[in-house]
Structure formats: structure tokens, C-alpha cells
Predict the structure.
Amino acid sequence: MSTAGSERAPARPACVLEARGVYKVFVTSGRAGRRVMTALRDVNLGVRPGEFLTLVGPSGCGKSTVLNLFAGLTEASDGAVLHDGRPIRGINTRGGYVTQEDNLLPWRTTLANVEIALELKGVPRDERRDKALAYLERVGLKGFEHHYPHELSGGMRKRVSIVRTLVDESVNVILMDEPFGPLDAQTRLVLQDELLQLWQDSGRTIVFVTHDLVEAIALSDRIAIFTRAPGTIKEIRDVPIPRPRDVFHIHEAPGFADVYDPLWNDLRAEITRGPEPSFG
Amino acid sequence: MVEPTRSIWIDDRVPGREAEVLRREAADTERRERSSRTTVAAWQILLLGALLAGWSGASGRIVDRLFLSDPVSIARAFWRIVADGSLEFHLRYTLTETLLGYVLGASSGLLAAVGTWLVPVAAPALRPLVLLAYATPKIALAPLMILWFGIGILPKVILAATFVFFVVYLNTMAGLGTVSGGLVNVVRVMGATPAAVFRKVVLPNAMPFVVAGLRITIPAALIGAIVAEFISSNRGVGYLINAASSRYRTADVFAAIFGLLIVVIAMNAGVSTLERRWLPWVTRERSPLG
């Protein structure tokens, strides 16, 4: 059900990001000896070009680990992780990465914080300045270019941290790990709306992690539901609500309940299932 | 290639593919950890060996033996002052000064900081005085200490204590200032009196700072004691070093320094042990001193 990217050039691979039979296990060495723990078990997931895909699942199910694999911050223990059909080796600099914390550099102004993404890739000063200013204007931060992060509100800082990933044109995938988690409910809605607008014009692909099912429905083309740890994908559901969407009244959109109820049933089963004996 | 690992137990119910991945990752981790341990140990031995070899090589060839001595002569000299009991005699004296000075300086620094913190106007009122005292090079006071307190153990203890006092005082003040308002408010609403707030929240919160102060002042206390011994003493390791160097017995000087080194390392280990026992909740990076 992707709207933005469905009519892309056929030469591109069918998936921007792909996980094939991915396992991720963690080995911890402590006083009590070495322990192993499976975080991801046989994860298979294809992210289509231009789509907005959300990962939901119980706490600790490995959703963030999947994002970290796509970002190249961690390596799969087994299986393949691909970006545009090529295995991801080392840090994936063609992905943008937005976390719960805004991770802005406190010693840089708003403008300089947005510019850093271009600076690190060697874009000339004037060009990066123009691009950064254009994006800041789009999210209503004109006039705050020379403010430091501590002088901005939480919502403003989040805007800066999102815009910072979009400003780099070589980035075609944005990975977002509960980006709106720490914001208040109203700011969240406003930012969800802004994110959709930024995304819809951009042709970028977004992989988004959240605990909030309403947020997932408001934003996504598809929603992947994870089982509890060791995480694997239980179900992938389409969100057939037409775009552009009104995130402020998404629960009134026709078909909302048809998406929400099965989603909640999938998730509830994972949250309430008794504890599985821990392996290893 | 998958090596079997001894330390990993994997449940029979884990599917074969997953069990294989788990076993492989565990083996990789074990191999990585073992090789990094080996690398570190090799470097440590290499660097220490290079120091000793460079020292031996330079001595008598590049630099006069009188200035450098050499590791073998120093080991011999060390063994001699251990065997004839002179190291023990002098070290006991220096250690007494150092420990007394350390305890005196640390406890008065701690109490002064707590006192300053409890009295609202004290900190700003004392600030110019503290700044003056902090800025004074304590080592310049050594001759005055001798003048005031004679040539016995007292001036050494007091000089060592001044070296410790300010660092512990300032560190404790800094630690007391870091308590979060939220933490205090939560226990106040539970009914904590101001004294209980201080005892149960503010002070424990400051402990990591206090311990850091205690750790960095160990060598400082020793410096205070040794410097005072240099100026006037007929015993102590400072005296031993002074006496040996005035007779150009360089190996003896180094042997005595080596004795001091053991003291500092032992005291540092003592503070680390106390820290692990009393402050197990502190999560920290491994200290550069191990």
C-alpha cells in the first residue's frame, strides 16, 4: 500500500532494506561466566522503496536491534542484511538515524547541527548552509538558526534532529527509534504530521520503531509485529487508510478499527504470554 | 570453524540452526577476549622490559652510572636495605607520618566540607579564604612547619595533611552540590527530616567524589611527608634518600624510591577495596590505574 514509492523506476531492487534469515545473539561475560542470549531469531523483512514501515512489539523484542543492523551499528550473527541489494558492511552512511534522545551537539547552533551531516561528507560551505536553511525553514525554525540546543524546546530539538538526517541527499533511508517517545502528547501529534509531510515529498524510505499502535497506524504503510524475545516477525499488516492522513483525527478515519483491533490482538498475545524458559 | 566452548550451556530445545549460531558467537567471543588479554599482557611485558633494557643499556654508556645506576644494582641495593632492616625502620617512620597526615587531612577535609555545606552562608563567606589557601603552594610552607612544630614527627604529619585536606574538601563540596532536586523532594515527601535527607541522600550521593578525592591524595600525602623529611630529619625514607644521594649512592636512592612506590600501590589497592565494598552501586569506567 505504499503511495510515495510505488511508481519508482523498475531498475531498483524490490527492497531498499532487507533482512534475510537474520539471527542476532549476544554473548555476555560476567562474574558468573559467559552467557548467550538470542535477541533475533530468523528475521526476514523486506522494506520497499519509499514506504513507511513501522516495527512494533513488546519491550526488549529486538526492534531496535533491527534498526541498528540496518544502520550498520551492529553485525548480524547469521543471515544477511542488505541495503539496495548490497550487504551492509560497517556503518551504513546512506541511512539516517534518529533516536529517542535528540543527540544534538550542545556546542553547535541549530544551523551548525544540521550542517554537520553535510560537513562530514565534504559538501562546500555555501551549499550546506543553503540546504540546511531551506530545511529549517520548512519545519518552522527560521529565526532559530543561531540558537544553541539548550535554548530550544524538546519539539524544536526533535525537528532539528530529523531535518539533520533529511538534509543529506545521499541518505535514502531514515531509521527512527521511538523518536517521539519523550515528547508530550500534543507535540507528538504535531511532529507526526510534520514528519509525514517531510516524508511524502521526499521519496525517502522510513523504518520507524514505536510502542504506540495509534502512532504506527497514523504514519505507516505497513506494520511489522514482532514476537517477544527472542524476536522474530509474527505478522506484517497493511494500513489501507488513504493518504494524506489527518493524524489528529486518525482514530476517526474509516477503517481505523479494522487495523487497530487485529494489531492489538497480535501484540496482546505477545505481552501476556507466560515467560518462556530462558535458553543458554 | 566452530570450536567447542566449555563455558556455554545451550538448552536442548533450542533449534539446531540457532544453537549453532549461539555456539559460534560464544566461541568467537571467547577467542576475541583471549587474544585481547594476550595482546595486553604482551605489551605490558614488552614496555616494562624496554624500560629496564633501555635503562641498563644507557647506564654507563650514554649517561654516567652515577646519575642513573642500573636495574641490577638497584635490585641489589633494595635487597640490602630490606635485609639489614633499614628500609623497614625508615619506611615505618614515613608510613606513620603519611597515614596520620592522610587520615587527619581527609577527615578534617570531609568534616569541613559537610560543615560548610550545612551552614548556608558558610560557603560564600569562606570562598576568599579557601581560594587563598588553595592558591598557596603548600610545599613552600614546609620550612615554616619545621619552624612552628620542630623537627619531630608533627611537622611531617601536618604538611602531609595540608596536601590532603584541600583536595578532599573541594571534592566533597563538589559532590555535595551534585545531588538532584528530584531525589531530595521524593524523600522529603516520604517524611524525611533535613538531617535524614542529608544522611540518606546527599551524603551517599557525594561518596563517589569523596572516594575520588581520597584516591588522588594518597601520593600527595606521601609527598608532604617526604618533603618535610628532606628539610630536616634523621630518619624516614626522605632522610634515607637524602643521605644516599649526598654520598652519591644512586642505586640506594632508587631502591628507597622503589620502597615508597610499594606503599602507594598498597594504599591505592586499599582504597579500591573499600570502594568496592562500600560503593557497589557506583557504575564507572575502569580507572586508568586499574
